[in-house]
Amino acid sequence: MLNAADYDKLQQIMEESPRHKEVISRLLESHRMEIRAISHEIRNPLALVYSSLQLIESGHPEVQDFRHWKEMRRDVEYMTRLLEELSAFQNGETLHLTETPMSSYLRALALSFAASLADTDIEFVSRIGPELPVLLVDQIKLRQALLNLLANARDALLSSADMKKNLQLSFCAQAESGQLLLTVSDNGCGIRPEDLDAIFRPFVTRKANGTGLGLAIADRTAKAHRGKLTVSSEPGKGAVFSLSLPIEQDPA
Question: Minimal CA–CA distance to 158: which of 182, 183, 127, 187?
């Protein structure tokens, strides 16, 4: 499967001439269709397997005491999530753009995420300006990207809870220099310098049960919006993810 670096190189080649763009676009679409077909063929029987497990558990609750039953369910749930995220990654460049008042959109997103922190000791702060611009964005994909960044920050803090006090997570949005800058920062465990270069590549993860596609999807979503996703971090001091979107947009 092509990774983010491969797509960047192909994009550079496509910009060299209309002919290159036409040929590579057809190849990429063929590649996406193959991945979608494979995912579809796997997802349907996997859904039946998961439904069967639920029916068995409902009719015979004693199976939950069987050795490896819970591990089996977790494995099926992981595969289901992996296929869903793989589909999202493959479709990351296809946007359904809507004029979106970013202040109200981002406040609603922050409020939704805050509910997931109710049973934690994390202090969550959001700073969203009242007069942010109206942008053409894919509301579903941008929401998914931002929630993924916020969830990653939350998980980093929770994994640091035994070593740190005053766990802090912030989500900020401001317009500056023709860009809408969205930042997610935490004071958790941070990211090792040797991991930073690969952090947006598909299937690269530091989580035990991670798919390695969340940040790759967020990066592709940013690029599809003609924006950019960057990260800075220092081990032991946390991380800052910054997603910038152009305010003056050309949807073509």
Answer: 187
pTM for the complete prediction?
Answer: 0.67
Question: pLDDT at position 96, please?
Answer: 84
Q: Rounded to an integer, what distance in angstroms lies between the CA atom of residue 70 and that of residue 197?
A: 35
Asked if pLDDT for residue 37 goes beyond 50, the answer is: yes
Look-up: residue for tokens 């369910």?
73
The three-state secondary structure class of 67 is coil
Give the three-state DSSP class for 238.
strand
Residues 6+ apart with CB under 8 A from 14: 20, 21, 24, 25
Gap between the Cα atoms of 44 and 37, Å rounded: 11
3-class DSSP string for 16-60: CCHHHHHHHHHHHHHHHHHHHHHHHHHHHHHHHHHHHHHHHHHHC
In a 3-state reduction of DSSP, which class is residue 166? Answer: coil
Q: What are phi and psi of 66, to 5 degrees?
A: -70, 145
- Tokens for 184, please give them: 């997610």
Contact 175, 133 (CB under 8 A): yes
Q: Is residue 90 a contact partner of residue 32, using CB atoms and an 8 Å limit?
A: yes
Instruction: Tell which wins on pLDDT, 156 or 86.
Output: 156
Query: What gap in Å lies between CA 153 and CA 242, rounded to an integer?
Result: 12
How many residues are given for the chain?
252
In this predicted structure, what is the pLDDT of residue 251? 45
